[in-house]
Write a structure and sequence with these properties.
alpha+beta, GAF, 6 strands, Histidine kinase, 4 helices, globular, Beta-Lactamase, 36% helix, six-stranded antiparallel sheet
Length: 151
């Protein structure tokens, strides 16, 4: 797993560089416990992301996992009455804009890839497509490592 972890974190650094974003992270579903955890990050200011645990139907990650469709946040500002748990990763990393896309393994949404900025930003179509394509490649990389793991 150590090698895969290094590959994932290097990939997150690459997508940050290619999209000129401040933060990139990968959340993964734990089907046994019915939870979603942020597993890997690049550009993080602290390790709070590691302690964020959500239900698969909650928060920005849960929304993307449930719908299987990307979510583009042009300007995130929490509002009075909002549940902070719905935006915990955005709050923990002080993100103002983000692209969150599904990560598919064996034709099922198993997690999400998030890239974000700590300033307001309108993402162009090229950046959005780049993140979507990157998530597909990461899903294929992870699927390959699962399929070829020693038993």
């Amino acid at each position: 797993m150590g090698s895969q972890q290094g590959d994932v974190e290097a990939s997150l650094s690459t997508i940050r560089r290619l999209t000129d974003t401040d933060f990139a992270a990968l959340a993964w579903t734990d089907e046994k416990n019915q939870t979603v955890h942020w597993r890997h990050a690049s550009g993080n200011r602290n390790d709070r992301f590691k302690r964020i645990v959500m239900r698969p139907n909650k928060g920005v990650a849960g929304s993307v996992i449930r719908s299987g469709r990307p979510l583009i946040l042009k300007s995130f500002t929490p509002k009075s009455g909002d549940d902070p748990q719905d935006y915990s990763i955005l709050l923990a990393e002080n993100l103002k804009s983000a692209i969150i896309v599904p990560l598919t393994i064996n034709e099922r949404v198993k997690g999400v890839l998030l890239v974000g900025c700590r300033h307001l930003r309108t993402f162009d179509e090229q950046s959005i497509e780049l993140v979507i394509d990157f998530a597909e490649q990461m899903g294929a990389m992870i699927q390959y490592s699962i399929d070829h793991a020693p038993t």
